[in-house]
Design a protein that fits this description.
The protein is of the alpha/beta class. It has two domains: about 130 residues, ornithine cyclodeaminase, domain 1 (2-Layer Sandwich); about 180 residues, Rossmann fold (3-Layer(aba) Sandwich), CATH 3.40.50.720. Helix content is about 35%, strand content about 25%. The strands form two sheets. Strands 1, 2, 3, 4, 5, 6, 7 and 16 form an eight-stranded mixed beta sheet that branches. An eight-stranded parallel beta sheet has the order 10-9-8-11-12-15-13-14. Helix 2 packs across helix 12 and helix 4 packs parallel to helix 5. The radius of gyration is 19 Å and the shape is globular. About 50% of the residues are buried.
Amino acid sequence: MVLILSKTQIVSLLTMRECIEAVEGAFRELAVGSAIMPTRVSLSMEANEGWLGLMPAFLSKAKSLTTKIVTVYPRNASQHGLPNVLALIVLNDPETGRVEAIMDGSYITAMRTGAVGGVATKYLARKSATSLGIFGCGVQARTQLEAVREVREIKSVMVYDSDPNRMHEFISKVAYITKVEPTKMPEEVVRNSDIIVTATTSKVPVFNGADLRPGCHINAIGAFTPDARELDDHTISKAKIVIDYSPAIMEEAGDIIIPIRNKVIRREHIWAELGSIVVGSQQGRTSDEEITVFKSVGLGIQDAAVARVVFEKAKREVVGTEISISD
């Protein structure tokens, strides 16, 4: 029997704290070599501005074997009334290969991406950081907000989005969590934030790095193709750069690829992968003055870690629908 889990059911099961713990464990496995994760296969549908990715991953210690099929269509919300990101996750039994579950992956994608921002913030942001700035007010803005608040005592939040309606809609949706201040000027976000999250669909830098405070930490999670970037050369050149996974970053992350190609930085400018900091083989932040950047393009191990948490909780709480697909 295969367990089918809908988005609504997954929302009822999953907490951000659990996601952060699971994703941190996944990066620990990646660092010590107990994870298997091929670089994702992707293709672009230029006529529709769409993108599809296929992301298999295996976590030995977490006993999780998954494949995610994810699509990103930036025009979905405005033209079709659909989420810009859609995903499906298949969970297999690593001992037999049997399909154990098929689950909606959109919410898991949002939560695990938020969670990796939480893990990065835990290790790289100043302990005293209390102000958060967010660029982009889509689905990711909310989970990034939740994750950062799990690991730091955030007292003020400021947001910017090129679409004022989307910005105010986001503020109304998170009003029960915390007060959020909107702004029409990107520089206000930068100058007033200890932690910055960029979660946009922009292909060009969203702020001027000259406005950054000393000691600021940035989670850059929006751009995930070689021709797109959210951070400018000034930011990249003066920051300590931590990445999720080098093979994926060097193939997909315009925030890193473009400055290297333009000889603004060399590859050696990258300080570390996040997993090496999690296991303690490399240091994260070493002073309250340095600017740190975490660049992520999203990894299959994150999906594998969170999907296993969802599946185990669903079994314990008897959530989902079991069907036979092998008759």
